[in-house]
């Protein structure tokens, strides 16, 4: 991941511009939300305050509310226009009659620098945010900073086999991390008992143009330095369509990591260490 240069300002710009269009791939976000939250069935949690980092279109919101009805949910996203759409979204008729609408705690902020106090959050949740994070170890340390002692986290991302069909065609993609590296990063950050598991999803497309359009729409890792982006011409697309047999398949390797913060730790500058004095 040494040559990955994500531009936070560009990510914000792209998602603000394409906020209304993301509904075209809501089937994917909804499916991933259900898959990730199902992992929480195996963890005993009773959080009072949850922060959903990279809340996006809010596909995880209702599932989190159902699982933790007593918790206050803070939904954080970098793109203000996405959050504005959330405020305008109408409630379903059934929800109006059968349940009290929960207050929306929407926060426009950068997950790389969470505007949250130390030891203030019981559960940090981040579904499919990692592809937009340049420095994943720093983000995991940020998770640890805001978690209370005894707090838990659940993060997901795409692994090394994701988009492998596109790379076979000579296209470039985000350099997805290995799931084992994610577990090591959690341990190095001082988080406890991280569990990382993975599963594969295969999407079928009837034409390559639609596949590439939806990949671009999601912008998964595409908001990087200009030198790393390779625009595709019409002639190149035509040649690729001739190479790529129908139906077009796209592999997603989805990993989910969860664990705990069960002890305090002092982070000192490099070269310094804590000296304990005993009487």
Which strands sit side by side, in order, in the main sheet?
3-2-1-4-5-7-6
At CATH level 2, the architecture of the domain at 8-161 and 174-199 and 254-260 is 3-Layer(aba) Sandwich
Order of SSEs: HHEHEHHEEHEHHEHHE
Major beta-sheet overview: 7 strands, mixed
Estimate the helix proportion, in percent: 25-40%
Q: Report the count of strand segments.
A: 7
What gyration radius follows from the Cα positions, in whole Å?
20 Å
What does this structure look like?
The protein is an alpha/beta fold. It has a domain at 8-161 and 174-199 and 254-260: 3-Layer(aba) Sandwich (Rossmann fold). It has ten helices and seven strands. It has helices at residues 8-18, 26-38, 61-67, 80-88, 93-98, 136-146, 164-168, 179-188, 208-218, 234-243; strands spanning 49-53, 72-77, 105-108, 121-126, 147-158, 192-205, 248-260. A seven-stranded mixed beta sheet has the order 3-2-1-4-5-7-6. Helix 6 packs across helix 8. The longest helix is centred in the N-terminal third of the chain and has 13 residues, at 26-38. The chain is globular and about 60 Å long. Residues 97-101 have low confidence and may be disordered.
Which helices and strands appear, and what pairs or packs with what?
Layout: H1 8-18, H2 26-38, E1 49-53, H3 61-67, E2 72-77, H4 80-88, H5 93-98, E3 105-108, E4 121-126, H6 136-146, E5 147-158, H7 164-168, H8 179-188, E6 192-205, H9 208-218, H10 234-243, E7 248-260
Parallel strand pairs: 1-2, 1-4, 2-3, 4-5
Antiparallel strand pairs: 5-7, 6-7
């Amino acid at each position: 991941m040494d040559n990955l240069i994500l531009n936070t300002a560009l990510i914000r710009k792209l998602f603000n511009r394409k906020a209304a269009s993301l509904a075209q791939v809501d089937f994917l976000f909804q499916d991933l939300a259900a898959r990730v939250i199902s992992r929480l069935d195996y963890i005993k949690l009773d959080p009072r305050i949850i922060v959903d980092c990279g809340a996006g279109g809010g596909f995880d919101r209702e599932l989190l509310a159902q699982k933790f009805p007593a918790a206050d949910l803070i939904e954080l996203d970098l793109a203000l226009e996405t959050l504005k759409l959330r405020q305008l979204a109408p409630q379903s008729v059934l929800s109006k009659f059968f349940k009290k609408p929960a207050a929306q705690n929407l926060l426009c902020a950068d997950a790389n620098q969470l505007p949250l106090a130390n030891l203030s959050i019981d559960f940090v949740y981040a579904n499919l945010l990692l592809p937009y994070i340049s420095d994943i170890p720093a983000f995991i340390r940020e998770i640890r900073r805001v978690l209370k002692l005894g707090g838990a986290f659940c993060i997901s991302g795409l692994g090394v086999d994701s988009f492998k069909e596109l790379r076979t065609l000579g296209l470039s993609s985000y350099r997805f991390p290995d799931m084992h590296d994610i577990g090591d990063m959690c341990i190095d950050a001082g988080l406890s008992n991280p569990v990382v598991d993975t599963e594969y999803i295969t999407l079928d497309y009837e034409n390559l143009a639609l596949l590439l359009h939806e990949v671009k729409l999601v912008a998964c890792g595409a908001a990087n330095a200009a030198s790393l982006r390779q625009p595709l011409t019409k002639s190149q697309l035509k040649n690729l369509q001739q190479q790529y047999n129908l139906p077009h398949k796209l592999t997603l390797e989805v990993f989910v990591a969860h664990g705990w913060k069960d002890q305090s730790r002092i982070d000192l500058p490099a070269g310094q260490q804590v000296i304990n004095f005993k009487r």
